[in-house]
Amino acid sequence: MSEEVNEKKVNGVEETPDVDDVRPVAKKVAKHDSGAADLEKVTDFEEEREISSQDIADAMSLFDDKRSKETAERVARMRELAKVVINKDDVELIMKEMEIPRTTAELKLRECAGSVVEALIALTD
């Protein structure tokens, strides 16, 4: 590497710095410049490609269909669980023992077909 000697003026007199003040001049290395050109090519290609409004509409309809299907399955499940007969005392027992809200206790009891033991085991797992 080349070394550059910095001269300083002190009180109007030019002084040559000591050997300790000599700093090597670093050259700017451009090691990532070739990647910039490649990135520009990819960016240009993507900018030229357009997304049609029909493609967007199709994607949105797929999401809507999936959401409505999941909602229908959830409603059907809740209807099936609502048919299960549960005892009010069992719900109170689960609420007090597990310290959970009534809706959670009822749901777990219905999922376990009204069995208090199974519901408590399911809640502790």
TrEMBL record:
Transmembrane segments: none annotated. It comes from the Eukaryota. CDD domains: UBA_HYPK. It comes from Oppiella nova. Residues 1-12 have a biased composition (Basic and acidic residues). This is Nascent polypeptide-associated complex subunit alpha-like UBA domain-containing protein. Residues 84-124 form the Nascent polypeptide-associated complex subunit alpha-like UBA domain. It holds the Pfam family UBA_HYPK. GO terms for biological process: negative regulation of apoptotic process; protein stabilization. Residues 1-22 are annotated as: Disordered.
